[in-house]
């Protein structure tokens, strides 16, 4: 049976979509649709300090304006704490968890968690929980970045799966949600590449399937800085989606003819999907325009 991808776009509603995030949405959409697959939308709104409901509405509106139509209901991480807690219990049994009271300040400058709280026997109800990490290597073949081999024990050490505010960490929530929603093909930005070994480690601990991965080059501004909310990348246009989408498709190595642009975003996406090959995305980052 041929592989039917289930892809997803998983924005955090901490700001409007900028060209860098729309670039990822378009690539993951095309990569799933071109192979007859499904494309899901998941709102990663666990960071209650930074996420805002109106950004969530704006993200949905923007995707619709660009004819990026998702399948099924929108998944919202803020509604899934109970599910994460169930998977956390499984990690308790294997490979085990321990409470950690180390502050960010205490750990500043350390790439790898030194295991300070490993043997302190703290109470988990008030602290973050870390998962024990063994010495295994995680090997995977990224569809764009090629063969990867990481060892979480040396890369980051025991990592947080449950936060001090008593909800799942990004790593646990992503792994649980990808598995529960049947995602088998992840297309996302290269800034997340070094999280992948940790996520595969959790998949192995929880006996969950590992999706295929493709990490996309990040778009940069004219100064060579990654387009990001932190760098105040402007929101994509809701007035002129056709020009914005044409620029993104060109940057993805799949330009569409001007005659198609007159037919709107849906026709442009369909044309790009008909011709899609993820390996045609140019690897270099560069000014987005
Ligand atoms: N929520 C993450 C972000 O906005 C994406 C997470 C993922 O794709 O795994 O960067």
Explain what the structure shows.
The protein has 289 residues and is α/β, with parallel strands linked by helices. It has a single domain (6-280), classed as HUPs (Rossmann fold), CATH 3.40.50. 33% of the residues lie in helices and 15% in strands. It contains ten helices and ten strands. It has helices at residues 19-33, 53-65, 81-93, 104-107, 152-155, 170-180, 196-205, 241-251, 258-261, 265-274; strands spanning 6-9, 38-43, 75-76, 97-100, 128-131, 138-142, 146-150, 159-162, 185-189, 212-216. Strands 1-2-3 form a three-stranded parallel β-sheet, with helices on one face. Helix 1 packs across helix 8, helix 1 (19-33) packs across helix 10 (265-274) and helix 6 packs across helix 7 (196-205). The longest helix is centred in the first third of the chain and has 15 residues, at 19-33. It is globular, with a radius of gyration of 20 Å. It starts with 5 loop residues before the first strand and ends in a 15-residue tail after the last helix. Residues 10-12, 44, 174, 188, 192 line the site of glutamic acid.
């Amino acid at each position: 049976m041929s592989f039917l991808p289930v892809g997803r776009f998983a924005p955090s509603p901490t700001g409007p979509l900028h060209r860098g995030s729309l670039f990822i949405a378009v690539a993951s959409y095309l990569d799933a649709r071109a192979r007859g697959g499904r494309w899901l939308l998941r709102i990663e709104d666990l960071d209650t300090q930074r996420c805002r409901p109106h950004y969530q509405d704006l993200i949905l509106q923007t995707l619709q304006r660009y004819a990026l139509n998702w399948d099924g209901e929108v998944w919202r991480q803020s509604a899934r704490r109970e599910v994460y807690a169930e998977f956390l219990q499984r990690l308790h049994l294997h490979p085990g968890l321990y409470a950690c009271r180390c502050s960010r300040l205490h750990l500043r400058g350390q790439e790898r968690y030194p295991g300070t709280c490993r043997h302190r026997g703290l109470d988990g109800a008030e602290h973050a929980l870390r998962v024990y990490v063994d010495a295994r290597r995680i090997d995977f073949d990224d569809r764009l970045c090629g063969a990867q081999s990481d060892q979480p024990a040396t890369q980051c050490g025991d990592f947080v799966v449950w936060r001090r505010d008593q909800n799942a960490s990004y790593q646990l929530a992503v792994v649980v949600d990808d598995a529960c929603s049947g995602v088998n093909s992840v297309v996302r930005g290269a800034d997340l590449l070094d999280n992948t070994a940790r996520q595969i480690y959790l998949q192995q601990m929880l006996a969950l399937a590992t999706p295929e991965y493709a990490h996309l080059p990040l778009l940069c501004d004219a100064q060579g800085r990654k387009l990001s909310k932190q760098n105040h990348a402007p929101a994509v246009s809701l007035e002129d989606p056709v020009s914005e989408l044409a620029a993104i498709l060109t940057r993805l190595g799949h330009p569409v003819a001007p005659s198609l642009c007159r037919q709107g975003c849906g026709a442009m996406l369909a044309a790009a999907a008909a011709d899609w090959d993820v390996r045609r995305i140019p690897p270099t980052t560069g000014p987005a325009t």
